[in-house]
């Protein structure tokens, strides 16, 4: 009898834990396909549900909060997709009357915060893109958007949406130490989430490539298959400054930087400026085609493996374009010089 009572008590505890972490996803999406699927961040199917007149429901248990993608097709053919955070409570997925291309995901703290942030951010973006918006107002909008992100982050450090904001919105612009400082502001429980654990590891690696740190060598094949090391370029007496540039032909913002790179390279090449480009392309033809078609006449290397590249790990690259300016002594003196900032920095340094 005693054993039976113990087992019954254990079962009750397990049931209680399951109920505590239970989530429900209630959806009503007009025109949805006959089945909807929940995918994890690695695109594995977590669950599926039938759709009747646009209505569907998922029920499950999330041992810890996690992000998921909702689509109404396994592969191609989806009529919609929506990101949501699986956490205890009822999550509602509905059409957005203000934006037909977006689904509203609300009902739990993290999803409500995500929806409110997306709505506020969308309004600022629309105003920014309005042809009648003045240049002065656009500059103010950029500052408002950044402040919005930081305010919402501080309001959501107790849930997974706050983690997502830090890693996906602010992670690119902060230094390694700044990231560690931000991570430390989260409760201990949130610091144990997979996303923040990975971000902390990345931040610790970033510190090794902060301004003032020595560069980390890279050696990868050029277009002819010959290994070219970053060290050989940095140590070349003819080069006073070397820009280590991470890019890919499929990256729109990367290609948008090309005119600025060309302008700076053409003017300062003979004065001691060189570029060592590392491509994250996965197709050799795409990589070399972009180099030729855009007249990118500086040094290029690639393992043609996308982000599965040791240099990406060594330099803690989270997104591209990314760049590091290295002086002749091998010290990183600047990071992520975009647009005219690169030209202005090189002009200033070589004028000294």
UniProtKB/TrEMBL annotation:
Q: What Gene3D superfamilies does the database record attribute to this sequence?
A: Glutaredoxin
Which InterPro entries does this chain map to?
A: AhpC/TSA, DUF4369, Thioredoxin-like_sf, Thioredoxin_CS, Thioredoxin_domain, Thioredoxin_ResA/DsbE_sf
Tell me the organism: Alistipes shahii WAL 8301
Q: What are the GO BP annotations of this UniProt entry?
A: cytochrome complex assembly
One GO MF term attached to the UniProt entry: antioxidant activity
From the Swiss-Prot or TrEMBL record, give the protein name.
Answer: Thiol-disulfide isomerase and thioredoxins
- Gene Ontology CC: cell envelope
Q: Where is the Thioredoxin domain?
A: 209-352
Q: What is its main location?
A: other
Give its localization.
Answer: Cell envelope
Query: What keywords appear on the UniProt entry?
Result: Cytochrome c-type biogenesis, Disulfide bond, Isomerase, Redox-active center
